[in-house]
Fold this protein.
Amino acid sequence: MASSNQLSFIEGYAGAGKTTVMRGMKEIWEASGFKVYGLAPTGRATDNLADCGIRSQTVDRFLRSYEHGQNQLSSKSVLVLDEAGMVSSKNFTALIGVTKELGVKLVACGDRGQLSPVEAGAPFRLSINEIGKADLTTVLRQKVPWQSQATSLFGEGKTEDALRLYGDHGRIKFVEESLPLNVVEQYNLSRRITGNIAHEMNQDIERAKDNKVLGGEELTFKKHHDYALFIDWKNTRDACTKEIFLNIRTYQPVMKEMGVDGVDFCNKVINHPHKITQDYDKYRLAKALGIDWRIDVTHTCDPRLETKKELMSDWFKSTQDHPDAKQAMMAYSNKDVLHLNMMARQLKKESGEIGKEEFTYIIERNANGALGEELGNRKTLLEERTFSKGDQIVFTENNTGLGVRNGTLGQITSLDKSKITATFKEEGLEKEVSFAPNLYKRFDNGWALTIHKNQGATVDLSFTLASFEQFRNLSYVSMTRHEKDAKLYGSDFDFYREEKIYDRLGRHQDKLSSLDYLSPEDSEKLLRSEREQLNKTFEAVGRKLDAVGYVGGRAWGQVCDKFLGRTPESNLIRVDYEALHYHKTEATRADEVLRGVKYDDSILPRDVIPKVTAEASDAKETQKKPDPKVEEAAPVTPSKVAPKEAHQAQAKQVPPTPPVETVVHTAPEVKEKQETAGLQKEQTIVIEAPRKQQRPRKQQKQQRPRKQKLPTQDFQKFVRDVESSIRIEDLAKDILGAQNLNTSLSNSSQLRFGRNGSLSVELKG
């Protein structure tokens, strides 16, 4: 970091002191005459750098300011990027570009094992693999030895072992849930759990197939140790299906309210073990029952209601016992976070810690999460939230005017219908902010937050709600935010065996790059092959573009000649003598193929272009092809002639295929004489053939005439005729492909082809 390298990387476990190192490096850099600026992917992460005295902002805000010309960096500046593992490829590439252009030093700190970017790519991991890094492996955040050991195991990717340490020390609670009384909710819940168990069983069977190859025992669905549990939940689902179907009018409104998929429900009715109904398909049955609505399918149920109550009770007691400690509740989904906040407000209100007077506001939140926002597909929902004096509030969007960031936590000091005032800490100082909730709607209750929003945060005590959808990186983040203690709560509906919580929360879901599937040698070989192919492609396209340019000039000349009403001048194709002397050029090959002129391999004499006279050509054609004589044939009666003889007689009546006439540009006088001669010849020939009669295929092949040779003329005249028939569109189609050809972009001075006009021809005189 203190070296002269313009780009440095630091990777450290959660709580290994990356922020502390930055505080020390800041003093060293400033003593050397450098100014230090901080960057982070989220507003919550910038608070950590601010605590070190490093003035910080989000990466998005920094890049927008730079694009608008707002820049105060120089070669004597240092950019410190915290939580670099969450930065997308697009933003990371832009930062590298700024570093190179301004000559600043960039120090990126992060952890590959924690959360990945929302957008595509994993640039931090790929960069440290290529450039190298400095490692921080000594955990400083957790003071208890076994918790420090667990954090190190999390950082090494040994999530199951780390979780078992917390389980062995009683920090993981398994809560027994009970079935809800509502039949529709029972159906949704049993449907969900049955699917989860079946999914896990199928994955175990697939893994067992690999073990079987190594000599392991074969595992089937019925032999699985969770099969009995699966059947129990399936029986519950089938009983609920039958009850709802037999009383469909009673349950229909509840089904719609709880987001039951009517078509999926009818499919289970048809496949019911007791054959509730027959002679229906699922779509017709759903329509007949009146449950074929087109709504967002949610299958609303809560598989962890009792677990939330247990977590909430421990959290509230902890806030009473340790009022000055920083405490955090975390969950995977926004739905669980909303429910935890409602429960926390109720307990705080009953204890008198928040005011009894409440105000309800309309807030905005992302309907499709952070992914939709990052990919430009942001959709918002308007929802109601209730607040009181003393409530904890979280700001969910950066706002420069208010001085808040996405993830900033505050405490409400006063509020009314049109104004909210809250205090929050920034750089160790307490600040106050007031805003109108009808103008700034990006805020929410802040007693509980998602795990994603808590990355980069440090608290004293943490309480995490585990869920079936959670993976290793989320487990790593949630179980390493604390300094003193952490607890994890799991539902027996999510984790139907205690062993399953270690298995599910320890599975990886790392974001991979295409380079992860290739070794360095293979990737280098692939890139080398691609470079060779690209060079060949560029050479071929360059030659075709030269041809397009030449033909474009010829086309413009013809347009001008036609516009001015003048006779076009002859254009000569000049062939280099050396090429003609030593090689068979394109002209030579064209002469051999099209005109039948043969060349030997000897050196051709200078200034000699072989020609074939018109008289010789006519004489040759006369010898090979006699004048056709067509006589009027008498009708043939099938009854008087044998079938074979009748077939031959009919074949004689069929005229030969007329020769294909070659278009040749000739003078007007010659053309007029040819047309007159053609009319006279047509008047002397009479062809009578039955319209419906067709020649046999074999006979047609035998009587097909040879191709007519091109009219005799010198080579230069031949080239002029062929050249005038070349169309620029054909060349463009050859380069771009017929499916990409689009001439609607062309204008009077430029011919443009392709969907975006990627190929253009300038029309110049």
The longest helix spans residues 520-564. The CA atoms of residues 249 and 413 lie 50 Å apart. The mean pLDDT is 75.
